[in-house]
Amino acid sequence: MIVKAYAAKAPEKSLEPFEYELGDIGADQVDIDVSSCGICHSDLSMLDNHWDITEYPIVPGHEIAGTIRAVGKGVTHLTPGQNVGLGWFAESCMTCQQCLSGNHNLCPDAVGVIVGRHGGFADRVRAHKGWVIPLPAGVSTKTAGPLFCGGITVFNPIVQNNVRPTDRVAVVGIGGLGHMALRFLNAWGCEVTAFSTSPDKESAARDLGAHNFVNTADSGALEKLAGHFDMILVTVNVALDWDAYIGALSPKGKLHIVGAAPSVEATVFPMILGQRSFGGSPLGSPATMASMLDFAARHVIEPVTEAFPMSKVNDALEKLRSGKPGHRIVLENDF
Amino acid sequence: MIVKAYAAKAPEKSLEPFEYELGDIGADQVDIDVSSCGICHSDLSMLDNHWDITEYPIVPGHEIAGTIRAVGKGVTHLTPGQNVGLGWFAESCMTCQQCLSGNHNLCPDAVGVIVGRHGGFADRVRAHKGWVIPLPAGVSTKTAGPLFCGGITVFNPIVQNNVRPTDRVAVVGIGGLGHMALRFLNAWGCEVTAFSTSPDKESAARDLGAHNFVNTADSGALEKLAGHFDMILVTVNVALDWDAYIGALSPKGKLHIVGAAPSVEATVFPMILGQRSFGGSPLGSPATMASMLDFAARHVIEPVTEAFPMSKVNDALEKLRSGKPGHRIVLENDF
Asked: What's the first-to-final CA gap in chain A, in angstroms?
């Protein structure tokens, strides 16, 4: 079967139409007709080979929503015609300690959809049955794609850190990830604070569910919030004044990083005194993705998206490269 | 009532006999006849005013075991003659969100036994009833003192991080704190590894409960253990190669610091990919101390102690200042 796609043949090149042969479907595999595919900063990093793992030509795209076209003979829980999504990972070993513990996202042999294989800027994509997640009623194939990477990246810390509806949570950065975090946390019942250096985003942040907005460029803004937050979720990938952020944590509070700032440096004593900690996490497991989708459906949470036809993929990439949209750009399959 | 004690009148001075008037006992207070009192590095820090909070003259000592002499009229759960212990904190507000949540050790108004008041290098000490913890049968007033500061400092992270008996845990540093951590973790059922730069401590570490011993001065020692540990408990107060230690954590693993190294600097990406984190904690709550004592009694765990008569306090302090004992020095009341 021939897949029609858009691929880059070298770093920083425009994408061009590209076709490849998918081969026979494996017993445990699922083929998806792509409806739409979000664009993530990780697509840009892979296009430009920032992580030294890109194989060219590369077909980016790992925020995929679509409809099952075919399933392998070992797939019994999914059926053609079903609406599904697929995120960063296409498969994992299913048998290591992490996979067997439900932490498939931490499998050392997990394979990225666009790492050594082709992704969702295409009419079709293939993945292992364990990573193809059904969309509940009410979750649209037009907008669900970004939930499978940006969405799960911010939803997973809420689950992993046992955030409670009585908690006070801040989100640093109101962009492609942060805007979804505000929606999730508001529905989770938390006191939600948006941290941004762009005061013009206040109105949007409040519309997305923030009860408070803090311009962290204001001198002393963080100091006024000393000891306040049970979790601060960092979605930006820049160096921060880490001690000031840790100081804004309540006792037992956690600074959780999902934006890959290069490094973090912090004074130890305030962490000891307040039993504060910080860490990070990648995406989420298939089970957590299913929980997220149920939660999103129940609370009518979807990403804010701006649609481009897939044939305009280069325009869409240029828009993401040049700005910091407070939303997610999605390509609609027009092959 | 006159208390007989040993006090320093200025930084880096020897301790001298000192008496003070305790005054009437408050309704919620308990007076303890000191049997023995451990010496902690924090006593040295306070003696030398390293933290700028010392008031002179200072009577150090906050690892206290003894017998109740008197209780205030509001104390109904403790009785004179009962064996008890007292650690770093003498009181907390009992009504803030932390105290009411059982996290009295995180109370912002908690008062240290030797901060602005006098401690356990004395024949008697006074504290709030909430912080005076009964010793179960089998826990001796001769050796229990160090459990109340060094002991709870390493026991609390096991509880707070939900360490399970199936976990693999490393302890960095086999000294006054680390040796107790090895005993607790062995009894907890974990795979226990001792990390030290002193290969001559291997035999003692194994006797204390370590299943494995790693000389972290060996080149590549940590790299061989990549991904291994669910928790690494740092009891030393020096800068480490943080990235190497974080690399030795399993997915979801935690680097937990109780030795107050000045600062920590770490690369973020490995923390995100493996959902690793790091943090610290101070001592423990009264409820956790009671749990620790029950656990210690059931498993016959006590600190390794070397006893000095309290009248030889200056010799004992000198021994702690000049070495890195793999045990705890305890003063026995000989007033």
From this structure: 15
